[in-house]
Amino acid sequence: xxxxxxxxxxxxxxxxxxxxxxxxxxxxxxxxxxxxxxxxxxxxxxxxxxxxxxxxxxxxxxxxxxxxxxxxxxxxxxxxxxxxxxxxxxxxxxxxxxxxxxxxxxxxxxxxxxxxxxxxxxxxxxxxxxxxxxxxxxxxxxxxxxxxxxxxxxxxxxxxxxxxxxxxxxxxxxxxxxxxxxxxxxxxxxxxxxxxxxxxxxxxxxxxxxxxxxxxxxxxxxxxxxxxxxxxxxxxxxxxxxxxxxxxxxxxxxxxxxxxxxx
Length: 263
What we know:
two-stranded antiparallel sheet; 12 helices
């Protein structure tokens, strides 16, 4: 294993454990709690795809006329991940992106998708995140999470994009989702079968294959440049802190909902 990757993994482990063992998972006691979780989390699902496509844009040639761009091994790595994330299959064998699959899961369990749809519709119109967040009444923690992702995207530093994609997403998601999926069958009926499939699909694909591809991609892009590795670690730390803040926001919303109901 690359010594720089080992160093980053060691330094971010406390934050990673905070996320994997966050109290939000045990707070999800009923279907209404799960709906709140999904209405926050869907923003991370969406901006994951944006981060992925930014990497593909930076690391491969997606315009015409076509010319070879970058290292062929890195092109292969990112294109394989894009293939799995942008056009995977649902439980019926139908091709869908993981974002579209997540929306299906939200609709099945009765979670409101109007907020994320309003956000995307407004963003398509004017490309202004501030107005899109305001128009859709996006939770503050979700908007801050997305803002950081796009700060990294707009840096045009592919090695930073790769770092937060790898350590803040692909290498994190399997452990994070294990915390949810372990109890989901015990707590909920078949109305969340699509969500369960989504979680298990991510655990299977990201844990078994994509995380290894992403680690190799990050190693290729940072190479032997110590400054790049330092910047990558700092960006990763911030990305994990933003995830913790997102989960804190979900947890507070769930607790506040229960407090209001009991008044």
